[in-house]
Design brief:
Oligomer: single chain
Order of helices and strands: HHEEHEEH
Shape: rod-shaped
Strand order of the largest sheet: 1-2
Radius of gyration: 36 Å
Low-confidence stretches: none
Strand content: 5-15%
Number of strands: 4
Distance between the termini: 65 Å
Mean pLDDT: 82
Number of helices: 4
Length: about 140
């Protein structure tokens, strides 16, 4: 039995006593039941509010998880590659226009010949000047 049903049962018991409504005791019992009735309504309203709040918190939690994945996740989010390919770059040869894929290690290794025409491809590596990267460099 929930609280509303128990209150209904209590009201039934009170009605079954056939108390004279003009006596002080009957007035006290009726007042107590009225207060209990108001409390049950208040609790029901709070439960509805809590359910709505839980739904909103769950929605915010999901949004926050997506945001955390976007901001802090080191994994690749692109649809065109697997996690192993995320450190690969597409490079176009300026002479023949051939597109080749090179990994990070190759880019850091220096110039490489184009597999199509033999032109030496050089890569420029730009250093990041953001505060986070500067802090990482100091820690090393």
């Amino acid at each position: 039995m929930d609280t509303t049903e128990k209150l209904g049962y209590l009201k039934g018991l009170l009605d079954g006593l056939d108390l004279d409504q003009n006596k002080k005791e009957a007035k006290v019992f009726n007042a107590i039941v009225d207060v209990l009735d108001n409390l049950v309504e208040d609790v029901d309203d709070m439960q509805d509010g809590i359910e709505m709040l839980v739904e909103q918190v769950d929605a915010v939690d999901e949004d926050l998880a997506e945001l955390e994945d976007y901001v802090f996740d080191d994994e690749c989010d692109c649809d065109d590659c697997s996690d192993d390919e995320c450190n690969e770059f597409q490079v176009e040869c300026p002479l023949c226009g051939e597109e080749i894929t090179v990994d990070e290690e190759t880019v850091l290794g220096g110039p490489i010949p184009c597999p199509n025409c033999g032109e030496m491809l050089e890569f420029e590596i730009e250093e990041c000047d953001c505060d986070d990267c500067a802090q990482e460099d100091e820690d090393e």
